Amino acid sequence: MPVLLSLFLFAGCALAQNPLVLKAARLFDGKAGALVSPGLVVVVAGKITGVGTTAQIPRDAQVIDLGDATLLPGFLDAHTHLTLPYSDDWKGATFDGLRKPVSEQTLDAAENARKTLMAGFTTVRDVGSHDYIDVGLRNAIRDGKIEGPRMLVAVHAIGSTGGHCDDDSGFRAGIFASVPCQILPSKEFYDYEDKYC
After folding, report:
1. Pairing of strands 75-80, 3-6
2. pLDDT in tens, the chain (197 residues)
3. How far apart are alpha carbons 145 and 122 in whole angstroms?
4. Which end of the chain is more exposed for a tag (fewer CB within 10 A), N or C?
5. ∠32-37-40 over CA atoms, to 5°?
6. Is the alpha carbon torsion for 188, 191, 194, 196 positive or negative?
7. All domains of the chain in start order, with CATH
8. Helices (H), the chain
């Protein structure tokens, strides 16, 4: 059974100085809906410049022969929450999340993004977050600061109070505020003055 390799594995190839050619026994052509042989992908200056049997191989290219493998395009996930960790224990995860500061949640989200990319997803649509973690994550990935898929972000999720995507998990707003009101920054920086005080 042939090994399936997604092109995402070679994101590090973007850093290569010379052109790079990935060669495999087969390549799935998503436009034609067929396997082509041999599978060739040419990467020049971090961009894919040629795919398939007719791809022109630059003279100074480094060729990586993957043998009896099939190259696939990256996958797209249209409903993700990279900033919200998954757990089989929803109740425990909810309470753990209430105790984590935004900075720690952001680090967790960066790890989720890396794992998502390594699973073969090169683009995701993140359909709801909080504290603009998704925006920062998207920007850090775009700027090459962290590894992750291209992100299309919704910023705020839509849901009912106490329902799916309720930032306060159905609890009274501010009940879990970790910062006393008297030391909260001014309203221009943090709009929790009215919410928590």
Report:
1. unpaired
2. 344 444 444 444 445 578 999 999 999 988 889 999 999 999 998 888 999 888 999 999 999 999 999 999 889 999 999 988 778 887 888 778 778 889 999 999 999 999 999 999 999 999 988 889 999 999 999 999 999 999 999 988 877 777 776 766 666 666 665 544 444 444 444 444 444 44
3. 16
4. N
5. 90
6. negative
7. 3-73 (2.30.40.10), 76-158 (3.30.110.90)
8. 90-99, 102-118, 133-142, 193-196
Instruction: Quote the tokens at residue 12.
Output: 């590090």
The helix (H) or strand (E) run that includes residue 70 is: strand 69-72
Length reported for the chain: 197
d(CA 83, CA 72): 27
What single-letter amino acid sits at 54?
T
- First-to-final CA distance of the chain: 62
What is the model's pTM? 0.68
Locus of tokens 């943090």: 190
